[in-house]
Amino acid sequence: MATKIIYKKIFNLKRWSKMKRGGHFAALEQPDLLVNDIRAFARTLR
């Protein structure tokens, strides 16, 4: 969690998601999880 705290201080971090499955290439390995996470983020912008 230290990484998240550092990023929140340095960047304008709006969302931090830790995926349950997948790896470095989430869009290829777990596209449904990635799309659901992007949609959840987009809903917060409305």
Mean pLDDT: 87
**Main structural class:** mainly alpha
Query: Would you list the SSEs in sequence order as H and E?
Result: HHH
User: Cα-atom Rg, whole angstroms?
Assistant: 12 Å
Tell me the helix content: 55-70%
Overview of the molecule:
By secondary structure, the chain is mainly α. The chain has a domain at 19-46. 59% of the residues lie in helices and 0% in strands. It is built from three helices and no strands. The protein has helices spanning 2-10, 26-29, 31-44. The radius of gyration is 12 Å and the shape is flat. The protein starts with a helix and ends with a helix.
Show the helix and strand layout.
Layout lengths: L1 H9 L15 H4 L1 H14 L2
Give a quick precis of the structure.
The protein is mainly alpha-helical and 46 residues long. Helices cover 59% and strands 0% of the residues.
Features:
flat, 46 residues, 59% helix, mainly alpha, 3 helices
